[in-house]
Specification:
Layout (H helix, E strand, L loop, with lengths): L5 H23 L2 H18 L6 H22 L20 H7 L4 H12 L4 H8 L3 H25 L2
Helix pairs in contact: 1-2, 1-3, 2-3, 3-6, 5-7, 6-7
Length: 161
C-alpha cells in the first residue's frame, strides 16, 4: 500500500463517488451512514491506496473497501435507527423501484452479487475476485438470488390482481 496525492485522490473520487455511494446506500439503507462510508473510503484512498492503480484494479479495490467498511459499520451499529426503504428508493428509476424493494428481502451477500453483476456489469469471475470468494460460490449464489427474486416479484404481481 502506498500513499496517494490529494489531486490524484480527488480525480479518483470524482470518477467513482457515485458508485461508492450507491454501494454504501445499498448495503446500509441509510443516507447518513453512506456519507460516512464515503468519507472513510476517501481516507483509505489517501492512506492505503494500492500500488497498482490501473482502472479495473482500483475500482475493484474501492468496491471491496466500501463493502468492508459497510460491514464494519453494520456490526458496530446494529441498534442504530435507519431510514425506511421508501426514503431512498428514489435513487433508482421508478420502473425499478419494485425490484429494489424485493431485492432488500434477499441476504446481503446475495444483494451485493446481484448489484455487482447487473448494475456494475462485473463478470462472475471478477465478482469472486472482488469479494474473495470462489467463482462457483458466486455463480450458485447468483442463481439462487435470481430464483428468489423472481419468486418474490411473481408473488408481488399475484397480490396486485
Amino acid at each position: 500500500m502506498t500513499k496517494i496525492g490529494t489531486e490524484e485522490a480527488e480525480k479518483i473520487i470524482r470518477q467513482y463517488s457515485d458508485m461508492i455511494y450507491r454501494i454504501a446506500v445499498h448495503n446500509l439503507g441509510n443516507f447518513a451512514d453512506a456519507e460516512d462510508i464515503m468519507q472513510d473510503v476517501c481516507v483509505a484512498l489517501l492512506t492505503k491506496c494500492p500500488g497498482q492503480r490501473d482502472p479495473e484494479h482500483l475500482k475493484a479495490w474501492l468496491i471491496r473497501v466500501t463493502i468492508n467498511k459497510c460491514n464494519s459499520l453494520h456490526r458496530l451499529a446494529r441498534s442504530r435507527r435507519s431510514e425506511p426503504l421508501e426514503e431512498y428508493t428514489h435513487l433508482e428509476a421508478p420502473e425499478h423501484r419494485e425490484v429494489m424493494e424485493e431485492l432488500w428481502l434477499l441476504p446481503k451477500d446475495s444483494r451485493n452479487i446481484i448489484y455487482l453483476y447487473y448494475y456494475e456489469s462485473y463478470t462472475i469471475a471478477e465478482i469472486a475476485r472482488i469479494l474473495g470468494k470462489n467463482p462457483n460460490t458466486v455463480s450458485s449464489k447468483l442463481q439462487r438470488a435470481r430464483k428468489k427474486l423472481k419468486a418474490l416479484l411473481t408473488e408481488g404481481e399475484d397480490s396486485h390482481d
